[in-house]
Write a structure and sequence with these properties.
Blueprint lengths: L5 H28 L4 E4 L15 H12 L4 E6 L3 E4 L2 E4 L5 E8 L2 E4 L10 E9 L1 E4 L3 E3 L23 E14 L2 E3 L6 E4 L2 E6 L2 E3 L10 E4 L2 E6 L2 E3 L5 E3 L4 E6 L2 E2 L5 E6 L8 E12 L5 E5 L7 E15 L3 E4 L14 E14 L3 E6 L6 E13 L9 E7 L1 E6 L14 E5 L5 H11 L12 E3 L3 E2 L2
Length: 460
């Protein structure tokens, strides 16, 4: 074979380079969608990334059905671009090899017309085992176009809410990771009747005044893990509802919003117990509540027990520690019958703009029991100009234990395992104890920095 001339050789090298680049890009794409998996790209089924001009719901559903009913490894891919849909249903059970993967790389917009969501949810995932939803893409609810139509009007008791962005029902052994949820019409992500479910490293964003835009809501589910998420909404960053058991929440950055809440509980007659909840290593900033448990009056007899809030940082939080068994029901007759017991608040520190750092407002029929507060250190930053302003806590129908384990406070502030049974809606009992603790024999108050241990003290 004759040797190649210089021009031909350069041309060949250029073509080989292009081929290598092409192969590299394809290999990268295969790596993104997992080697060996058959790719079900929504554009293959007719989806058009035309910035919201086309309703692509059927293309998404058809791509899912094809992936779900296949026999090998399967991945549904939403490629880069902006796609608009109305209601989308990803239903199983599936016959493909598990896990089935949904890769979200583009932006999906929800229809702004509320009539397109008769089931009050945008994306519904049901009866699926071993699902992974991942990617760097975004589910944009376009809630800004419809929040003004929220019929709840700020009412706490309301069944007519705007559509949730994505709802998982009867989904097991599954993971949601990496994606972003923006401006949901209603709740962002709901996990119901599911088990062994993990949500990690996702971002949820909505304005502080957006109505009922809870970040992640969990109900009637077991073994749920939420970790490493950044959530800012107009409602609870995370709400743990009835029937939730063995839930772990950690590494959450929350704010704005209403904090991390258990409840509200007891609204409906067929609710189930809540137990085994651990919330750790979270930071809450400019939220209306911090660690909260809330229940309704005239509730069914259920329990909320074995609950831990630990290693939390509060930044300008209004109600850092709050048990509210009169949630939305102050004018409604009848007491809450939700029994709250074995709740542990440990190592909660930071700042608050509330004059009541700790509020335990429990049921007069089934008082709270086994409430433990350990190493609570909060500073008031509400800007009061009143000299010797009392920074206190409120207690109603609770048996609570207060203690310091760190040993960093002096003997005048140390209160080892003191137990208070608060029967009346008053903080007087607690304040008197803390006056004795913080005021020496010379009458000088020792809490000169305005910080508060166990939710009691004086702002200097």
């Amino acid at each position: 074979m004759a040797p190649l001339r210089g021009f031909e050789a350069k041309t060949l090298l250029f073509l080989v380079g292009l081929a290598l680049i092409s192969c590299g890009a394809q290999a990268a794409r295969r790596g993104l969608v997992d080697n060996g998996a058959t790719v079900f790209d929504v554009t293959t089924y007719g989806a058009k990334p035309d910035n919201g001009q086309t309703d692509n719901s059927m293309a998404f559903i058809q791509a899912w059905n094809a992936a779900c009913k296949s026999t090998g490894a399967a991945k549904l891919v939403i490629p880069p671009g902006t796609f608009m849909t109305s209601e989308v249903f990803f239903y199983g059970p599936c016959t493909c090899q598990t896990p089935i993967i949904v890769e979200v790389e583009g932006t999906v917009l929800a229809q702004s017309d509320l009539s397109e969501f008769p089931d009050n949810q945008w994306i519904s995932v049901r009866h699926v085992d071993s699902l992974i939803i991942q990617g760097q893409g975004t589910l944009h609810g376009q809630g800004e176009a419809v929040w003004k139509f929220d019929s709840c009007g700020g009412k706490t008791k309301c069944d007519s809410r705007l559509p949730a962005t994505i709802v998982f029902s009867d989904v097991s052994n599954s993971i949601v990771q990496g994606i972003s949820l923006v401006n949901s019409k209603g709740f962002n992500l709901k996990i119901c009747d599911s088990s062994n479910f993990t949500v990690q490293n996702i971002t949820i964003t909505a304005p502080a005044d957006s109505p009922n835009t809870d970040g992640i809501h969990i109900s009637r589910s077991n073994q749920v893990t939420i970790l490493g998420c950044t959530i800012g909404t107009g409602d609870d960053c995370i709400s743990i509802g009835e029937g939730a058991t063995n839930v772990s929440v950690s590494g959450i950055t929350c704010g704005p919003g209403h904090g991390i809440s258990i409840g509200s509980l007891g609204l409906r007659p067929d609710e189930h117990d809540v137990s085994g909840i651990v919330v750790k290593n979270c930071t809450l900033t400019n939220t209306t509540n911090g660690a909260r448990i809330k229940s309704w009056h005239q509730s069914p007899r259920i329990q909320a027990s074995n609950i831990v809030f630990e290693d939390l940082v509060m930044n300008e939080v209004r109600n850092p520690i709050f048990i509210d068994q009169h949630y939305g029901s102050k004018k409604k007759p009848g007491s809450s019958l939700v029994k709250i017991r074995d709740v542990h608040f440990k190592n909660i520190r930071g700042t608050t703009i509330s004059t009541n750092a700790v509020a335990l407002s429990c049921s007069d029929v089934v008082p709270c029991e086994g409430i433990e507060l350990v190493d609570i250190d909060l500073s008031y930053t509400g800007g009061s100009t009143i000299q010797n302003f009392i920074f206190s806590s409120a207690c109603e129908h609770a048996i609570a234990t207060f203690s310091v384990n760190s040993g960093e406070f002096g003997p005048e502030t140390l209160m080892d395992s003191r137990v208070a049974y608060c029967r009346e809606s008053t903080s007087a009992l607690w304040i008197q104890r803390w006056i004795r603790q913080f005021q020496g024999e010379d009458g000088v108050r020792r809490d000169t920095l305005g910080s508060i241990q166990f939710g009691h003290g004086f702002a200097g």
